[in-house]
Specification:
This protein is an alpha/beta fold. Helix content is about 45%, strand content about 15%. Bound molecules: nicotinamide-adenine-dinucleotide (NAD).
Length: about 260
Protein backbone atom coordinates (compact mmCIF):
# COMPACT_ATOMS: atom_id res chain seq x y z
CA UNK A 1 0.00 0.00 0.00
CA UNK A 2 1.27 3.49 -0.87
CA UNK A 3 0.77 6.49 1.41
CA UNK A 4 0.97 10.14 0.37
CA UNK A 5 4.12 11.89 1.57
CA UNK A 6 4.57 14.26 -1.36
CA UNK A 7 6.53 17.36 -0.23
CA UNK A 8 7.01 15.93 3.26
CA UNK A 9 10.29 15.51 5.11
CA UNK A 10 10.61 12.87 7.80
CA UNK A 11 13.17 12.05 10.46
CA UNK A 12 13.16 8.39 11.49
CA UNK A 13 15.38 7.38 14.41
CA UNK A 14 16.80 3.85 14.38
CA UNK A 15 15.97 3.62 10.68
CA UNK A 16 18.91 1.37 9.84
CA UNK A 17 17.01 -1.84 10.54
CA UNK A 18 13.68 -3.44 11.30
CA UNK A 19 10.59 -1.30 11.79
CA UNK A 20 12.44 2.00 11.27
CA UNK A 21 13.93 0.86 7.96
CA UNK A 22 10.54 -0.37 6.71
CA UNK A 23 8.97 2.97 7.72
CA UNK A 24 11.70 4.98 5.97
CA UNK A 25 11.17 2.94 2.79
CA UNK A 26 7.41 3.50 2.93
CA UNK A 27 7.76 7.26 3.33
CA UNK A 28 10.12 7.42 0.35
CA UNK A 29 7.76 5.24 -1.73
CA UNK A 30 5.01 7.77 -0.95
CA UNK A 31 7.09 10.62 -2.39
CA UNK A 32 8.60 11.91 0.86
CA UNK A 33 12.20 12.51 1.81
CA UNK A 34 13.66 10.74 4.80
CA UNK A 35 16.54 11.32 7.17
CA UNK A 36 17.77 7.94 8.34
CA UNK A 37 19.21 8.42 11.82
CA UNK A 38 21.03 5.52 13.42
CA UNK A 39 23.97 4.73 15.66
CA UNK A 40 24.82 1.83 13.34
CA UNK A 41 26.50 3.64 10.45
CA UNK A 42 26.71 0.65 8.08
CA UNK A 43 23.06 -0.26 8.44
CA UNK A 44 21.84 3.34 8.29
CA UNK A 45 23.92 4.22 5.26
CA UNK A 46 22.70 1.13 3.41
CA UNK A 47 19.05 2.11 3.91
CA UNK A 48 19.68 5.74 2.90
CA UNK A 49 21.57 4.57 -0.20
CA UNK A 50 18.58 2.45 -1.22
CA UNK A 51 16.40 5.57 -1.13
CA UNK A 52 18.67 7.56 -3.47
CA UNK A 53 17.99 11.32 -3.49
CA UNK A 54 15.04 10.81 -1.13
CA UNK A 55 17.28 9.50 1.64
CA UNK A 56 20.00 10.98 3.81
CA UNK A 57 21.92 9.11 6.48
CA UNK A 58 22.99 10.91 9.64
CA UNK A 59 24.91 9.02 12.27
CA UNK A 60 23.37 9.74 15.66
CA UNK A 61 23.20 8.06 19.01
CA UNK A 62 19.84 9.31 20.29
CA UNK A 63 21.25 9.42 23.84
CA UNK A 64 23.67 12.12 22.68
CA UNK A 65 21.54 15.03 23.90
CA UNK A 66 24.00 17.62 22.61
CA UNK A 67 24.29 15.98 19.19
CA UNK A 68 20.57 15.88 18.39
CA UNK A 69 20.07 19.57 17.43
CA UNK A 70 22.92 19.46 14.88
CA UNK A 71 21.45 16.33 13.30
CA UNK A 72 17.98 17.90 12.97
CA UNK A 73 19.45 21.17 11.65
CA UNK A 74 21.35 19.16 9.02
CA UNK A 75 18.09 17.49 7.91
CA UNK A 76 16.31 20.84 7.63
CA UNK A 77 19.25 22.34 5.72
CA UNK A 78 19.32 19.43 3.30
CA UNK A 79 15.57 19.02 2.68
CA UNK A 80 14.17 22.48 3.54
CA UNK A 81 12.36 21.63 6.78
CA UNK A 82 10.93 18.80 8.87
CA UNK A 83 7.27 17.67 8.91
CA UNK A 84 7.40 14.23 10.52
CA UNK A 85 9.31 12.66 13.39
CA UNK A 86 9.22 8.91 14.00
CA UNK A 87 10.74 8.15 17.40
CA UNK A 88 11.59 4.54 16.69
CA UNK A 89 15.09 3.75 18.02
CA UNK A 90 14.88 1.22 20.82
CA UNK A 91 16.72 -1.61 22.52
CA UNK A 92 15.77 -4.69 24.52
CA UNK A 93 17.74 -6.98 26.83
CA UNK A 94 16.66 -9.99 28.85
CA UNK A 95 17.09 -9.66 32.58
CA UNK A 96 15.15 -10.28 35.74
CA UNK A 97 15.03 -7.47 38.31
CA UNK A 98 17.48 -9.48 40.38
CA UNK A 99 20.13 -9.89 37.70
CA UNK A 100 19.78 -6.58 35.83
CA UNK A 101 22.84 -4.35 36.18
CA UNK A 102 21.57 -0.86 37.15
CA UNK A 103 23.47 0.56 34.15
CA UNK A 104 21.26 -1.60 31.93
CA UNK A 105 18.15 0.06 33.38
CA UNK A 106 19.70 3.50 32.76
CA UNK A 107 20.63 2.66 29.17
CA UNK A 108 17.17 1.34 28.28
CA UNK A 109 15.54 4.40 29.81
CA UNK A 110 17.82 6.80 27.97
CA UNK A 111 17.29 5.20 24.54
CA UNK A 112 13.66 4.07 24.81
CA UNK A 113 12.26 7.00 26.79
CA UNK A 114 14.50 10.02 27.36
CA UNK A 115 15.48 10.22 23.68
CA UNK A 116 11.78 10.47 22.77
CA UNK A 117 11.64 13.66 24.86
CA UNK A 118 14.91 15.00 23.47
CA UNK A 119 14.07 14.34 19.82
CA UNK A 120 10.55 15.73 20.27
CA UNK A 121 11.69 18.98 21.84
CA UNK A 122 14.38 19.36 19.16
CA UNK A 123 11.88 18.72 16.35
CA UNK A 124 9.32 21.19 17.70
CA UNK A 125 10.64 24.46 16.21
CA UNK A 126 11.08 22.71 12.86
CA UNK A 127 7.51 21.37 12.86
CA UNK A 128 6.10 24.70 14.02
CA UNK A 129 7.94 26.45 11.19
CA UNK A 130 5.99 24.23 8.75
CA UNK A 131 2.67 25.09 10.41
CA UNK A 132 2.25 21.62 11.94
CA UNK A 133 3.34 18.05 11.59
CA UNK A 134 3.11 14.50 12.86
CA UNK A 135 5.04 12.64 15.52
CA UNK A 136 4.85 8.86 15.80
CA UNK A 137 6.26 7.27 18.95
CA UNK A 138 7.02 3.61 18.47
CA UNK A 139 5.83 2.07 21.70
CA UNK A 140 4.92 -1.63 22.17
CA UNK A 141 2.22 -3.97 23.38
CA UNK A 142 4.53 -4.12 26.42
CA UNK A 143 3.09 -0.66 27.09
CA UNK A 144 -0.28 -2.37 27.57
CA UNK A 145 0.75 -5.53 29.35
CA UNK A 146 4.36 -6.58 29.96
CA UNK A 147 7.23 -7.80 27.85
CA UNK A 148 7.74 -11.45 27.03
CA UNK A 149 11.09 -10.59 25.45
CA UNK A 150 12.47 -7.80 27.64
CA UNK A 151 12.42 -6.95 31.33
CA UNK A 152 10.99 -4.32 33.67
CA UNK A 153 13.19 -1.64 32.11
CA UNK A 154 11.64 -2.16 28.68
CA UNK A 155 8.07 -2.38 29.94
CA UNK A 156 8.45 0.68 32.17
CA UNK A 157 9.86 2.76 29.32
CA UNK A 158 7.07 1.74 26.94
CA UNK A 159 4.29 2.52 29.43
CA UNK A 160 5.97 5.91 29.89
CA UNK A 161 6.07 6.53 26.14
CA UNK A 162 2.30 6.06 25.99
CA UNK A 163 1.91 8.65 28.74
CA UNK A 164 4.33 11.00 27.01
CA UNK A 165 2.32 10.61 23.81
CA UNK A 166 -0.99 11.49 25.48
CA UNK A 167 0.27 14.61 27.19
CA UNK A 168 2.30 15.90 24.28
CA UNK A 169 -0.66 15.33 21.93
CA UNK A 170 -2.77 17.64 24.11
CA UNK A 171 -0.02 20.23 24.45
CA UNK A 172 0.96 20.31 20.76
CA UNK A 173 -2.47 20.15 19.10
CA UNK A 174 -2.59 23.97 19.28
CA UNK A 175 0.30 24.06 16.79
CA UNK A 176 -1.27 21.56 14.40
CA UNK A 177 1.16 18.88 15.56
CA UNK A 178 -0.36 15.43 16.01
CA UNK A 179 1.33 12.92 18.32
CA UNK A 180 0.38 9.25 18.29
CA UNK A 181 1.77 6.00 19.63
CA UNK A 182 2.27 2.88 17.57
CA UNK A 183 2.24 -0.32 19.61
CA UNK A 184 3.66 -3.31 17.75
CA UNK A 185 3.35 -6.82 19.02
CA UNK A 186 6.38 -9.08 18.71
CA UNK A 187 7.77 -8.39 15.24
CA UNK A 188 10.44 -10.32 13.38
CA UNK A 189 13.28 -7.82 13.30
CA UNK A 190 16.97 -7.99 14.28
CA UNK A 191 15.88 -6.88 17.78
CA UNK A 192 13.91 -10.12 18.24
CA UNK A 193 16.30 -12.30 16.26
CA UNK A 194 19.11 -11.11 18.53
CA UNK A 195 17.30 -11.98 21.74
CA UNK A 196 15.38 -15.20 21.02
CA UNK A 197 16.64 -18.56 19.76
CA UNK A 198 15.30 -19.88 16.42
CA UNK A 199 13.41 -22.55 18.40
CA UNK A 200 11.77 -19.95 20.62
CA UNK A 201 10.86 -17.87 17.57
CA UNK A 202 9.26 -20.87 15.85
CA UNK A 203 7.37 -21.86 19.00
CA UNK A 204 6.15 -18.29 19.60
CA UNK A 205 4.39 -18.16 16.23
CA UNK A 206 1.61 -20.14 17.94
CA UNK A 207 0.97 -17.18 20.27
CA UNK A 208 -0.48 -15.04 17.50
CA UNK A 209 -4.20 -15.59 16.86
CA UNK A 210 -3.59 -14.54 13.24
CA UNK A 211 -1.12 -17.43 13.03
CA UNK A 212 2.20 -15.77 12.26
CA UNK A 213 4.73 -13.27 13.52
CA UNK A 214 4.16 -9.62 12.72
CA UNK A 215 6.34 -8.43 9.84
CA UNK A 216 8.17 -5.05 10.01
CA UNK A 217 6.15 -3.94 6.98
CA UNK A 218 2.89 -4.53 8.90
CA UNK A 219 4.11 -2.23 11.64
CA UNK A 220 5.45 0.30 9.13
CA UNK A 221 1.96 0.50 7.61
CA UNK A 222 0.72 1.66 11.02
CA UNK A 223 3.50 4.25 11.25
CA UNK A 224 2.76 5.46 7.72
CA UNK A 225 -0.93 5.87 8.51
CA UNK A 226 -0.17 7.86 11.67
CA UNK A 227 2.42 10.02 9.88
CA UNK A 228 0.29 10.71 6.80
CA UNK A 229 -2.68 13.01 6.18
CA UNK A 230 -4.89 9.89 6.22
CA UNK A 231 -4.86 10.19 10.04
CA UNK A 232 -5.39 13.97 10.10
CA UNK A 233 -8.00 13.76 12.88
CA UNK A 234 -6.09 11.28 15.06
CA UNK A 235 -4.00 12.54 17.93
CA UNK A 236 -3.11 11.03 21.29
CA UNK A 237 -4.15 7.53 20.19
CA UNK A 238 -2.41 4.17 20.43
CA UNK A 239 -2.50 2.03 17.31
CA UNK A 240 -1.86 -1.63 18.07
CA UNK A 241 -0.41 -3.81 15.29
CA UNK A 242 0.06 -7.20 16.90
CA UNK A 243 -1.58 -10.06 14.99
CA UNK A 244 -4.03 -10.36 17.90
CA UNK A 245 -1.24 -10.92 20.42
CA UNK A 246 -2.96 -8.84 23.13
CA UNK A 247 -6.06 -11.02 22.88
CA UNK A 248 -4.28 -13.99 24.37
CA UNK A 249 -1.95 -14.77 27.22
CA UNK A 250 1.58 -16.11 26.96
CA UNK A 251 0.46 -19.46 25.61
CA UNK A 252 -0.17 -20.99 22.22
CA UNK A 253 -3.66 -21.55 20.90
CA UNK A 254 -2.99 -25.32 21.29
CA UNK A 255 -2.31 -24.89 25.00
CA UNK A 256 -5.31 -22.57 25.27
CA UNK A 257 -7.66 -25.04 23.58
CA UNK A 258 -6.24 -28.10 25.32
CA UNK A 259 -6.86 -26.53 28.72
CA UNK A 260 -10.51 -26.24 27.71
CA UNK A 261 -10.77 -29.83 26.48
CA UNK A 262 -10.78 -29.00 22.77
CA UNK A 263 -8.33 -29.06 19.88
CA UNK A 264 -7.07 -26.11 17.85
CA UNK A 265 -8.26 -25.84 14.24
N1 LIG B 1 10.59 -6.09 17.18
C1 LIG B 1 9.64 -6.15 18.10
O1 LIG B 1 9.17 -7.23 18.47
C2 LIG B 1 9.09 -4.89 18.71
C3 LIG B 1 7.88 -4.99 19.39
C4 LIG B 1 7.35 -3.85 19.98
C5 LIG B 1 8.02 -2.65 19.86
N2 LIG B 1 9.19 -2.58 19.18
C6 LIG B 1 9.86 -1.30 19.13
O2 LIG B 1 10.06 -0.93 17.79
C7 LIG B 1 11.22 -0.10 17.71
C8 LIG B 1 12.14 -0.64 16.62
O3 LIG B 1 12.48 -1.97 16.98
P1 LIG B 1 13.05 -3.02 15.93
O4 LIG B 1 12.48 -4.32 16.32
O5 LIG B 1 12.90 -2.53 14.55
O6 LIG B 1 14.58 -3.01 16.40
P2 LIG B 1 15.93 -3.28 15.57
O7 LIG B 1 16.95 -3.64 16.59
O8 LIG B 1 15.67 -4.21 14.47
O9 LIG B 1 16.25 -1.84 14.99
C9 LIG B 1 16.46 -0.76 15.87
C10 LIG B 1 17.42 0.23 15.26
O10 LIG B 1 17.65 1.25 16.25
C11 LIG B 1 19.03 1.54 16.25
N3 LIG B 1 19.42 2.06 17.56
C12 LIG B 1 19.56 1.38 18.72
N4 LIG B 1 20.02 2.18 19.68
C13 LIG B 1 20.18 3.40 19.10
C14 LIG B 1 20.64 4.64 19.59
N5 LIG B 1 21.06 4.79 20.85
N6 LIG B 1 20.67 5.69 18.75
C15 LIG B 1 20.27 5.55 17.45
N7 LIG B 1 19.84 4.39 16.93
C16 LIG B 1 19.79 3.33 17.75
C17 LIG B 1 19.71 0.21 15.95
O11 LIG B 1 21.03 0.40 15.47
C18 LIG B 1 18.78 -0.38 14.91
O12 LIG B 1 19.16 -0.03 13.60
C19 LIG B 1 11.83 -0.08 19.10
O13 LIG B 1 11.43 1.09 19.77
C20 LIG B 1 11.24 -1.30 19.75
O14 LIG B 1 11.17 -1.19 21.16
C21 LIG B 1 9.73 -3.68 18.60
Amino acid sequence: MKWDFEDKVAVVTGAGKGIGAATARGIAEGGGRVAVLDVDADAGRAVADELGDAGRFIELDVTDRDGIPAAFDAVAARFGGIDILVNNAGVVTRHTIANMPPENWDRTMSINLTAVFDCTRTALPHLKARGGGAIVNVCSVSGYRFSLIGGVDYTSAKWAVRGFTRQSAYELAQYGIRVNALCPGPTLTPLVEGSMSPEEIARAAGNFPLGEWVDPKDVANGALFLASPASRMCTGIDLVVDGGFLLVGAQSIEEYMDARGDAAG
